[in-house]
Amino acid sequence: MTAKRSSYYLTTPIYYVNDVPHLGTAYTTLAADVMARYRRMLGHDVYFLTGLDEHGQKVEQAATAAGMTPQEWVDDLAPKFADAWKMLNINYDVFMRTTDGAHKKSVQAFAARLYENGDIYSGNYEGWYCLPDETYWAESDIEMPEDSGEGGDVAQNEGAVPNCPDCNRPLQFVREKNWFFRLSKYTDFLIDHYENNPQAMGPDTRRNEILSFLRSGLHDLSISRANVEWGIPLPWTEDSDDPQTMYVWFDALINYITAIGFGAGTEADDEEFAYRWPAQVHYVGKDIIRFHCIIWPAMLHAAGLALPKTVYAHGFLLTKGEKMSKSRGNAMTPAELVDRFGVDGYRYYFMRDVSFGVDGSISDEAMVQRFNGDLANDWGNLCSRLFSMVGKYCEGVAPAYVGDIHAEDAEGAALRDVAAELFARVEDAMNRFDYSGALNAIWDLVRAANRYLEDSAPWGLAKDPEKADQLANVLYSTLEACRVVALYTAATMPETSDEVMSRLGLGPATAVIDLEAAAKWGQLPAGNTIRKGDPLFQRLESTT
Ligand code: MSP
Description:
binds 5'-O-[(L-methionyl)-sulphamoyl]adenosine
């Protein structure tokens, strides 16, 4: 075990296999991928987990409706997720499937540990359950329908079915003997944790939401189901006359540690787990923060394990003010958008135009605007114009920088300053999960380079042999700005960055492992062949 490695373990939620991936699940995954790529470029030993949540009633029902067994169903759909992530250039390290034998075994070991510690007991569950969300709801969270004799005992209101406070779909009433986790016991522990560790949950609004929920008190959590077959057996009930399967969320949350060796049994697995855990960040959508910020940390604490350093929640993607979803008919598929905008156009749009952490409206119009304005005009055009000027005026090779021969070249100095400040600005933004802010900072350099080219007019300098040094300096500096931009945009637009680097006669940006050093000004070797190539982004028309 080398002490030098610096682990950066990050995760996405594992997605339900009840449908193919959509823009919402792709959004969480993309944000995690951009962070993973960025951290790799800083030299961190990144381990990026994504995967599938394959158990539970919802998946079981989807399979039955399709006339398949649950295992056939998940085996059929799993490759569709892997394909979608490939199409989006998502570079994960491990793809979890909760039907995997090793995961099941480790989950059982985790549950057994809690059972032996006295944190799990048997009791009667009576209440409402949301199947699409796989969530139990307390009576106090639910609004009973008008005709249900409000305020009465929930059980008496079985005839009138309330809707889920989260997704608004009808709940189902469940009454059965279950096994419970002593969640309520950890209320004060969790309050202390979030009060004392502001970085434990972001953004701040979500942390406040969790704190106020905690202060209102917690109920113990049912962690088993008597009538759901498609799940991991609770080990101590397996041979009893009342065998139960694990509540799907209990099984799913544990994937974050089974993926890195927890409970696998070998010394190497234990070492891996000790090295990787706790996770640096769990990426989640705002709809699943209670699971990740209340249930999961309590489970970990009960098992004597450290808590994740940060859980970060993003908002929803909205179209025309509404949550985008299939049932509303306003869903767009990742493939449709990749066809139109290319993979990097897709990645750039979601990271630049939607503020991470709050709800964001997306539209075709905005996508076209970003694509044409930021990518085709600002970035793509800068490269084409510049590379063709180098072709025309310098026989296609990078000129040598002549030194500060024109003291009045304030714009040249300004360009270098913008580049010099970039590392600190991007780092600061990325540490705050402000992807859009990081890209905006990078665009300051793109804009400065365009301005510099415009103001110094190389086409005029080229006409005057006396100004050859000045021409060399302008072209060299702008090429250097392009190199730096390609490095900083590589986490978001890996293909384009590697292409620009190759046109500059350089190795791939995505292979960099010390971004700060690589982005220091002046490293483009004079004499490199510069290739113009096709436009990086072709302008588009809006369809709306
Ligand atoms: N299986 C659970 C997670 C278990 S993690 C231990 C689950 N799966 S899910 O398939 O429903 O995917 C959840 C993820 O997709 C969340 O991060 C959620 O916010 C995201 N999105 C689903 N629709 C969304 C939008 N319209 N917009 C943005 N993201 C949303 O929950």
